[in-house]
Amino acid sequence: MTKQFLFTLSMCVLMTGCASHQGLYDWGQYQETLFVVYQEPALKEEALKNYVDFVETGGTPQHPIAPGLYAEAGTFMLEQGDVDSAIRFYRMEYDAWPESRPMLSTLIKNLEARQ
Question: Which domain of life is it from (predicted)?
Answer without folding.
Answer: Bacteria
